[in-house]
């Protein structure tokens, strides 16, 4: 299909004119839609499913994702999920605790995450249309819009037109296929089968390596047991349909010697260790986020969290582009920043897949790594990789310990009340936070795009690394664009604000 050809006109087609088309109403697409709507962008979300998922799928939210949801005031909607400080690296137990408000990992079924994000997106005005199968996408010839054609659940053609389209349609992305996007990487060599099964009573297994493969079993509070099994040496071939419960029963029996065939499967799934990443997350007016941009073994919940943070990085940048006040090159920083983060995550997942699914030949490596993980710097480094707390963007310019890193969690005194740094990020704008001395006058020129707040660290509260910091400028996604420790000068502030927020109003 030619990417510069408009879809053929169809007199019977419903035509939807919007600003941004989001393909896929999973967690990544819903978060992106909400971030855009928060900033006044009209968004149409099209989803092939006929309704919200009832499958649990990914069930882990990491520390950085919890910070993201806190900065949007969403955490109460999750209802206090269980916290588990222990995760793993390639099946080797790993304490994920790091400094911050949400150490460890938080157990939230994916359908709950989708429910919270869908309700938020709808409350902000997102137009979400389920039961739409995408069949055509094109950049129209004048180059200033994107058109897509879908087939609605009743068979009617629907044409959508917007300034941009974002593919959030998963690892088998239709958009990626239609656009013939370059998706290099390593093909699958191993697979795992998994199912949620009711009515079985087997012992819990946490990455149990057996002569015949790998077995995992975890029983939920409702009595349903999630089982996962990898059979050593099993070929990964092209499938013509989904995994079947009978396959899992047979593989489980061969690996563990147990029979789970008497249980009732509630959900059956398979995944593999294919490891690929788009060469470019942006193709003009078409962008990619989440599993549409990268495909990896979904170990430890990293795939979901990586995708959510893609959307959080992209939302404010695309909104500025649509509104017409984005500085030159802002939207291109989405690829520059998130491709590098994605490459690092895919590299650590590839290492984990070897440790997790390899045979007896990887045991010496596992033993050495398990010993090294007892040293705090090694443990903290691996925990940072998995939790997303190690992300630091290269902004160039004058060095500062906070520049390019996320804004630390701290409790502040603002006027006569207290709040956290994340509460100050709940608007759709950037933040100029002054913790000592006068508020730099330069920040006022970006009124409406940057909030200016004078505060001080609450006495006796954890500072989160803000000790000695006099002022920080923070992007809407919570990353520090500029920081100053002492002195009355505000050198570099104007340049930082212009770089991320455009010309002053």
Automatic annotation (TrEMBL):
**Record Gene3D superfamilies:** 3.30.70.2450, 3.40.30.120, FAD/NAD(P)-binding domain
Question: Which Pfam families does this entry report, sorted A to Z?
Answer: FAD_binding_3 (PF01494), Rng_hyd_C (PF21274)
Q: What is this protein called?
A: FAD-dependent monooxygenase
Q: Which InterPro entries match?
A: FAD-bd, FAD/NAD-bd_sf, RIFMO-like
Q: Which keywords does the record carry? A: FAD, Flavoprotein, Monooxygenase, Oxidoreductase
FAD-binding domain boundaries: 17-347
Cofactor dependency: FAD
Tell me what organism the protein belongs to.
Answer: Streptomyces synnematoformans
């Amino acid at each position: 299909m030619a990417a510069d050809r408009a879809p053929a006109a169809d007199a019977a087609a419903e035509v939807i004119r919007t600003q941004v088309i989001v393909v896929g109403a999973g967690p990544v697409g819903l978060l992106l839609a909400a971030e855009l709507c928060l900033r006044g962008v009209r968004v149409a979300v099209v989803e092939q499913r006929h309704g919200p998922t009832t499958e649990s799928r990914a069930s882990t939210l990491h520390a950085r994702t919890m910070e993201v949801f806190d900065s949007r005031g969403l955490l109460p909607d999750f209802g206090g999920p269980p916290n588990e400080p222990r995760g793993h690296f390639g099946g080797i137990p790993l304490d994920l605790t790091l400094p911050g408000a949400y150490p460890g990992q938080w157990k939230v079924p994916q359908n709950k995450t989708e429910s919270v994000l869908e309700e938020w997106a709808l409350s902000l005005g997102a137009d979400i249309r389920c039961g739409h199968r995408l069949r055509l996408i094109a950049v129209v010839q004048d180059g200033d819009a994107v058109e897509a054609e879908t087939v609605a659940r009743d068979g009617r053609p629907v044409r959508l037109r917007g300034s941009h389209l974002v593919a959030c349609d998963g690892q088998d992305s239709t958009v990626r296929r239609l656009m013939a996007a370059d998706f290099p990487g390593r093909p699958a060599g191993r697979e795992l089968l998994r199912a949620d099964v009711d009515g079985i009573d087997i012992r819990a297994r946490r990455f149990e390596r057996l002569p015949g493969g790998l077995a995992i079993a975890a029983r939920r509070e409702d009595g349903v047991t999630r089982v996962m099994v990898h059979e050593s040496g099993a070929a990964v071939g092209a499938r013509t349909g989904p995994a079947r419960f009978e396959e899992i029963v047979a593989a489980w029996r061969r690996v563990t010697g147990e029979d789970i065939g008497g249980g009732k499967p509630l959900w059956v799934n398979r995944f593999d260790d294919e490891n690929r990443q788009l060469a470019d997350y942006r193709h003009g007016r078409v962008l990619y986020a989440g599993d549409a941009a990268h495909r990896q073994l979904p170990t430890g919940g990293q795939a979901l969290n990586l995708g959510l943070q893609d959307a959080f990085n992209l939302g404010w940048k695309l909104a500025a582009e649509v509104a017409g006040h984005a500085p030159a090159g802002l939207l291109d920083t989405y690829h520059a920043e998130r491709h590098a983060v994605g490459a690092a995550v895919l590299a650590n997942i590839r290492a984990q897949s070897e440790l997790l699914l390899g045979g007896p030949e990887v045991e010496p490596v596992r033993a050495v790594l398990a010993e090294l993980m007892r040293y705090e710097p090694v443990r903290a480094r691996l925990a940072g990789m998995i939790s997303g707390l190690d992300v630091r963007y290269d902004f160039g310019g004058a060095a500062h310990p906070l520049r390019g890193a996320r804004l630390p969690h701290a409790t502040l005194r603002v006027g006569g009340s207290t709040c956290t740094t994340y509460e100050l990020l709940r608007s759709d704008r950037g933040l100029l936070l002054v913790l000592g001395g006068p508020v730099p006058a330069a920040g006022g020129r970006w009124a409406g795009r940057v909030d200016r707040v004078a505060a001080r660290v609450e006495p006796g509260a954890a500072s989160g690394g803000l000790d000695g910091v006099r002022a920080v400028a923070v992007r809407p996604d919570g990353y520090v664009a500029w920081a100053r420790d002492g002195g009355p000068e505000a050198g570099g502030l104007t340049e930082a604000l212009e770089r991320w927020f455009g010309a002053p109003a």
